[in-house]
Amino acid sequence: MDDKDGRDGRQRAKADFRFDDARLCFAFAGTLADRGTDTPFERLARPEDLSRWAVQSACATTPPPCTEADLGRARHLREAIQRTGRALADTVPPAPEDIALVNRAAAEPASVPELAPDGSTVRWHGDAVTSVLSMVARDLIDLCASDHRTRVRICGNPDCGVPFVDASRAGARRWCSMKTCGALVKKRAYRARLHTPTDGA
Question: What is the rounded radius of gyration, in angstroms, for the C-alpha atoms of the chain?
Fold first, then answer.
């Protein structure tokens, strides 16, 4: 799915990363798109994609060097996060092997933030891929240890399947993002209504 909500105002492509309304850990889970379809779309197709995500997610100031092995570890962490998010949504304990994987990633030294001289921007020191993945894993751990763990949902778009945190007051949010999945599902429903004949037709 393409949309017009890219950060620079351009038409957003399928390969572009999504950060709308998402916690860091679940934005990372969203790097595999179309989970509910027969052909999921891999946004982390190459090591350079992981380096690009690190910068766009604001976990790194400059693109960290990334190898194929780093990419493999990142994908394993991503799927552990996805499964843990689904377990939280289903109110069941996460799998022990997923907890162990997340804990191993979180045990790596995280990047250190430094406030820039302008007092409004942050620079990161220690921008290694392992540091970025540590930050992602620690975000999931923070979520699991918070009251928001009971607010984890799975996106109502059946093609998506990515977890999100429902921080709405009513607790009735259905989509990982209204700008993407919510808009898409509503557009599909509208088109279906247009093609459904009325009783008097």
Answer: 18
Residue 18 belongs to a domain: no
- Among all chains, which residue has been given the structure tokens 């999931």? 140
Domain of residue 134 covers: 24-194
Does a structural domain hold residue 61? yes
Per-residue model confidence as pLDDT tens digits over 116-161? 899 988 888 777 999 999 999 999 999 999 999 999 999 989 899 9
CA neighbor of 100 nearest in space, from 120, 83, 116:
83
With contact defined as beta carbons under 8 Å apart, do 113 and 124 qualify?
yes
Exposed/middle/buried for 1, CB within 10 Å: 0-12, 13-18, 19+? middle
As for how many domains the chain has, the answer is 1
Alpha-carbon 95 to chain mean position: 20
